[in-house]
Specification:
globular; Rossmann fold; alpha/beta; 11 helices
């Protein structure tokens, strides 16, 4: 790809001080973008910033510390971004969490829902002035796991059950990310802001490597260490490969103006899952986000 395709553009990537997010940031920075990294650990943030500045050959990379699973953290992050730029060309909502049991954030929101659905919903709304200022901004919402399964409208925050194997709350919320994005694309129609979903494939990420044994069904727990340390590295993609589809959606001229679409790990446009196309599911997820988000960013985008 052209090394200057992102010159004079600014990108924000959540969950980007390590894992796939850092590789997305690297890809955009090496294409000339000014990049704002977002992560929880300030030490990791400084290390990632130094590394990417060296690799990209410019110093237009900085790191911010924020907990995007909380509304206060999102508000503070949006404020810090607004202080640094009045124009935002790319927002990549990449952060992911996978707790072994149901956990609530400081706002009383189930944590995986907060990270994968409420955070991109809220951060997008908080940053809309900067995104609209860009004229042709792109939002990339990263799904993952095994998305596309059913959406349980009476169990969006794992109120009834949390764990399955293929139908875990992680996968459930990643499908909800897709449903929320589908509706968001409609809400943003005519604003010059495009929003799409990308599937990175199964990467050997720090989150995968640190998966708790308790996250496995009891039957599989005896072999969980073997799966995590021996089998997973053989079959999961390297981080740079997993980052490519997000970098493509964020930077390629080929997808200029495309919105409300779903792309796979090979950067191919794919049909939405049936659960996402069900308007009852999209509305249930959207309405929950609207009720949980601050009043100042509620209502239409």
């Amino acid at each position: 790809m052209d090394g200057d395709v992102m010159q004079e553009k600014t990108a924000v990537i959540t969950g980007s001080t390590g894992g796939i997010g850092k590789e997305i940031a690297r890809g955009l920075a090496m294409r000339g973008a000014s990049v704002i990294l977002v992560g929880l650990d300030p030490v990791e943030g400084r290390q990632a910033m130094t590394e990417l500045r060296r690799d990209a050959g410019h110093d237009r990379i900085e790191a911010l510390v924020a907990d995007v699973t909380t509304l206060d953290g999102l508000a503070k992050l949006a404020s810090q971004i607004a202080e640094r730029t009045d124009q935002l060309d790319v927002l990549v909502n990449n952060v992911g969490v996978n707790p072994p049991a149901r956990q609530l954030t400081a706002d009383g929101v189930e944590k995986t829902f907060a990270a994968h659905v409420l955070a991109p919903f809220t951060l997008t709304r908080l940053l809309l002035p900067q995104l609209r200022q860009a004229g042709s901004a792109r939002i990339v919402n990263v799904t993952g796991g095994i998305p596309g399964g059913p959406i349980e409208r009476d169990n969006l925050q794992a109120e009834k059950r949390f764990m399955g194997w293929t139908f875990s709350q992680y996968n459930h919320t990643k499908t909800m990310t897709m449903a929320m994005t589908h509706r968001l694309a409609t809400e943003l129609s005519g604003t010059g802001v495009c929003v799409n979903v990308v599937y990175p494939g199964h990467g050997y990420t720090p989150m995968n490597r640190s998966t708790s044994i308790k996250a496995f069904p009891k039957l599989y727990r005896p072999i969980a260490p073997l799966v995590l340390k021996v089998i997973a590295p053989l079959f999961l993609a390297d981080l740079a490969r997993s980052a490519r589809p997000s970098v493509y959606l964020a930077s390629s001229p080929e997808v200029e103006g495309i919105t409300g679409a779903y792309f796979d790990s090979s950067c191919r446009h794919r049909p939405w899952p049936a659960s996402v196309l069900d308007p009852r599911n999209r509305n249930a997820v959207w309405d929950l986000c609207t009720s949980l988000s601050p009043q100042s960013v509620g209502g239409k985008a």
